[in-house]
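Continuing the series of single-chain predictions for the mutant panel. This is the parent chain; the variants come on the following pages.
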Amino acid sequence: MTEDLSPAERYAASRIRAAEEATALHPFRAMYDFDLDPFQIEACEALEAGKGVLVAAPTGSGKTIVGEFAVHLALTQGGKCFYTTPIKALSNQKYQDLAKRYGADKVGLLTGDNSVNSDAPVVVMTTEVLRNMLYAGSQSLLGLAYVVMDEVHYLSDRFRGAVWEEVIIHLPESVTLVSLSATVSNAEEFGDWLDTVRGDTEVIVSEHRPVPLWQHVLAGRKMYDLFEESDDGRGGRREVNPDLLRMARMENQRTYNPRDRRRGKMVREADRERERRSRTRIWTPSRAEVIERLDSAGLLPAITFIFSRAGCEAAVQQCLYAGLRLNDEDARQQVRELVEERTASIPGEDLHVLGYYEWLEGLERGIAAHHAGMLPTFKEVVEELFVRGLVKAVFATETLALGINMPARSVVLEKLVKWNGEQHADITPGEYTQLTGRAGRRGIDVEGHAAVLWQRGMDPGALAGLAGTRTYPLRSSFRPSYNMAVNLVQQFGRHRSRELLETSFAQFQADKSVVGISKQVQKNEEGLEGYKQGMTCHLGDFEEYAAMRRDLKDRETELAKQGANQRRAAAADSLEKLKVGDVIHVPTGKFAGLALVLDPGVAAGRSNGHRGFEHHDGPRPLVLTAERQVKRLAQIDFPVPVEALERMRIPKSFNPRSPQSRRDLASQLRSKAGHIVPERKRKGRAAAADDREIARLRTELRAHPCHGCDEREDHARWAERYYRLRRDTRQLENRIEGRTNTIARTFDRIYALLTELDYLRGDEATEHGKRLARLYGELDLLASECLRDRVWEGLSPAELAACVSALVYEARQSDDAVAPKVPGGAAKTALGEMVRIWGRLDALEEDHKINQAEGVGQREPDLGFAWAVYMWASGKGLDEVLREAEMPAGDFVRWCKQVIDVLGQVAAAAPREGSTVGKNARKAVDAVLRGVVAYSSVG
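Parent structure:
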């Protein structure tokens, strides 16, 4: 319509076009066959203007376009760009994308496993690799112009999040930072911090999903919309589907309660018939039914999130047994060809061990599992087939939601509860958003679909709240570590290091939170004045009288605690007298009832457990219950002393892991002692009845003038409010004190400990400190102490790998009943010495008030992987090793990769002269990096 414009307007428009064409963004936009979204253009323009950017946008919205523009700018300006990702799988994927776009000669890859063209102008790497380069002062940092931090919200991760902050703080000022994050509710706060530490930073937040998401509930044979749009004259609101609310009410009404029985009679026949009819309409569909339902509605490909590895594998088998086939013959042939090509390097005997043929059958039918227990090669194949549309149904754990580019048309959530490592907890709105964000493929799907399976007791309103909430705050998990402290002091000295740590996002958030607490303290102080007036008594000093009442109450509470402690001590003494074969009665707890002592446990102190030495408050007997369970009990199960009711001989052939052995011995236990009723202990006279202090306080209380006041109890209520508010105010004041300079105080404690161990002297690192600076990981100080004390000298490569495994491995679940198997000889001695050194460091940390609960300090070394990696490094076959380790192949490969990583660090940190450790560490790397471990490119 330029003909309608005046000459002046046409001239102005041509000037604008010329200005746009002169920018670097113009040719970049031409590289894509779709136009950029407004938020992408805004971020790219800010980047070209020399500003740093923080882009917070939903999963699948295309925020990585901004990261790719930083790559484009670096190449056009003749500078370097580092593209960092949180996981190796994502690094591999991004490397492939960028190499395809810009050419393999211009793009490199650096992860813990791979180094490809590392001197290229564009290098994709994991965030840890960049952190290590910054501390080492790598020459690769010269000419670095841009750093892209993909998935920067990972800094909330309690185990690895600190690495992101270290990189952001330590990058040279000349580097422009591009931070890409999922939608977070405090993006402005994070942007303010970036502005403080990195300079001018533009915050671009986009809530818009390029592909609309529809929310559903799958119940019975129907798929219900979670929301229905209601146009009530107020712009249209999303209301919870009334059909779902009606179903929830019906289910609650028909829930059968045994208490509804009357004199042994069952619920009336009519009620039972009504329940049968309603049940035909509402049930939780099976996994195969869900896939068939989605297929018939044209909603495949789909990802079903199941928060269990075993559940994912079982789901595939259930679909196969149901006869599901989602691929035609042509697709089956394509799948087989690709799978055979990708797995050609895996030996035939290993394929059998890895369950290859069962896995292939599922793939050919278009069905697969995806979880961390799978071999990395298998996971990569599933991802590639899914993206190509040759796998249409994937059952995955939540790890798939973390960054891998694997979008689907639909996402299904089986349950809204998952195990978080400690307990079963409801998923958060942030987790729900992250999981359902996979639904809807940009440029392919018109809309995405997220479905939750109907479960008994489901509350549609709560689900709607979960789906409609966008609160996902970014919380710093930054804590100083020993390695970090040594590296900082070595580069900047103690004072400057302290200042740098004070600039962390963790301290930034703590300082901001103090403002609100200070206001609350001021309000409380005003309230205290009002309460003080309310408890004023005309007969005397009621504050003095109230203090006496509180002293009396505190004394009574103290005596009650003393009584509980005495009972606890008596119970502990009784536990120490137990012997193998004693039949006891467990008074309380989950395993209350008859039990047979298999192992009396140990006295208070330390014992050698599955993770090395463990602390115990008292004996922890291992028992067989009458219900055939073998459990190690704790003192909390014995609030009163316990006595042996009977004695039994335990057969030498008894195996606690054998169900048959447990069943036979439990049967003997019930026969021998099932008829014995334990004697009930009578309660003694309360200590408070004879206490002189309590008697004195009661006498003084009665003699006080305020005791005779008619309004005494009214005054007392005001006094109670006063003391409660004063206590709360003091707690708030302590919080303010605790949050001010918290990071620096933790650094000071770490500095003091490292100085005591001669790792630091003033502003310099000693030779021992320089060695620690090259060791990264949770147990960095323990590894350094082992090198210092020459614990690993003379070990063979396989024995050294076994010892190093204790530094990285952590069992998914503890197994108190069985100690881990470890190699014998020199390796066993060295592992024992490692545990002893850890005990010394643990005591030292306690002296310096370094608290593991706060994420600082050395956890116990875990010996659970030592035998498996020793066998593997000794050349044993995969079948034998996995059978002995009782571990999925994916977990085995992942732990081996981590052992290799630390072995590499040990090789670099070990003394050059007079030591065999460095040479044997390199040999150990070669011994472990073979077979499935070697041909798994992602770990």
